[in-house]
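> tool_call: predict_assembly(chains=four)
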Amino acid sequence: MSRERITLTKFETEVMSVLWRLGEATVRDVQDAIDRDEPPAYTTVQTIVQRLEQKGAVRRTRKEGNALFFEPAITRKSVYRRLVDELLDLVGGSQPLVAHLVETGKLSLDDLKAVEKTVKAIKRSGK
Amino acid sequence: MSRERITLTKFETEVMSVLWRLGEATVRDVQDAIDRDEPPAYTTVQTIVQRLEQKGAVRRTRKEGNALFFEPAITRKSVYRRLVDELLDLVGGSQPLVAHLVETGKLSLDDLKAVEKTVKAIKRSGK
DNA sequence: ATCGCGCTACTACAAATGTAGTATGCGTAA
DNA sequence: TTACGCATACTACATTTGTAGTAGCGCGAT
């Protein structure tokens, strides 16, 4: 079940995001998908993808012409969990975090209600 | 109002946490407050505090004997905001984040209610 | 007055990260 | 079937981050 603790840098995480979104992509695809003022060089992206491959975060799927395709080998959720846990650790728990979201206007009371509703629905049906 | 974009590393953030908690502290205090298996050397902590000072994140307050005291020069909230914003950017918003918290059992429906109540109370009184 | 010890200031260095160049090979259009 | 161009594999290097050593000064006990 792959309990290896894969750690991603900021840029690596950004690349993973692209892959999670596209499902499968070439280095060129990733480069194109990265939205920046000054886009990174092709080989820069290539290096990141290679490092991700070495870490076991992505894997090659197929080849088209001489271009390799990559796909995520770890789930978005597993990465999120790690990041969220770190943040929770810092701010001191979920409640403070949510409170912060509301205080800073990132989350409204209505949003809270909405989430509640969603969660309840899921609970009833799924699990 | 100091719009400089101060960026903190993980360790720097940890040190800031201690300072926010203690309000004011010497390097030795910070070292003692850091909870790890293998605690960092005194001079390691000292280096971090110095870097924080250069970044304008902490400032010297006074001297006792030959030991300097430091205090935070930036707010906890400003740092949290930055980190939270990054995470929100990644996961795609507050609602998904909160949903994730609930899904992974980090936040219960009761917690949600509690936050709601707190927020409402604050709204009524404070702002 | 002086000596020791702790604290500071400065320096050093390895690992991680961001960034990119070069060499070379393979596929495809002509 | 050959040359061109894009992709890969490998290498390189600057910056950031984590980690710590050393020199030397000043405070406080004697």
